[in-house]
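Supplementary Text 2. Reproducibility record for the structural model of the 293-residue chain.

All settings were left at their defaults, and a single model was retained for analysis rather than an ensemble. We include the record here because the model underlies the residue-level annotations in Supplementary Table 4.
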Amino acid sequence: MAKIARLTYYPVKGCAGTDVPSAEITPAGLAYDRVFQVVAPDGDFRSQRRHPVLASVRPRVLGERLALSAPGRGELVLDIRRDGPRHPGSTFSWHGEGIHQGTEAAEWFSDLLGLPSVLIGVAPDHERVTGGETPGTAAFADGHALLVASESSLDGLNDRILERGGEPVPMDRFRPNVVISGWLEPHREDEVRAMRAGTAEFGYAKQCVRCTVPMVDQETGEKAGPEPIRTLATYRRHAEGGVTFGMKAAVLRPGQVAVGDEVIVHSWAGPSPSTAAAEPPFTATASRPAESV
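Retained model, structure tokens:
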């Protein structure tokens, strides 16, 4: 039986996550997920791709306050600004505005990165339509409300890394929101098209094509490559380029979820092209009835 093994939200895009035993699922994903982001003066978002040190920042949402800490730096606690002065913000194809969180936060991140930076929060009138097979919305996440991964996918990857003489990697390298246990086959999340956990429902949007972030040590904020990208490239190449791990999902019905909740899949697709070329085909089909897995 498949269950939710881990729930994580990331208050500030690119910074460390917070594991929780239960969570509210909003139309934009886990409550408080990527509701803040660090941007340049022109609004372009800062990420671990260019600034891996962001991984070492530990944000904590404390009701109406946000606490920021990082190794060697004093903790900064801010009153969250829900509305007020706007500042440009962008996330790949999305361009809009966010709420400027003040000069203290801007100076804290500017000092950390050595570049002029601003911390912005999601505005009350935030609008964003996400694409993929199931459209939805998101806050400041790369492109979709949720990233879903399974323990079996990580186990399969680490087995391959070990065979190549490398060191296994932890799940946090992939920064998922929902981790599922109980599936025997790696990458079975790729075949899910609609699923339920707790009182929330989710729809498949697309496979997650990975950038360089999984090569960043999420504890130290330092680059630690070439794994896991090197090994993923041997069996998880995407038809449009890059390698994949995990699937991105939209929220079909908001609700509540908790670690230990059973995951019920309502519809499946066939095997993903990136997996089928390297492994025996998976026999699930879209006509498979809803089941508890």
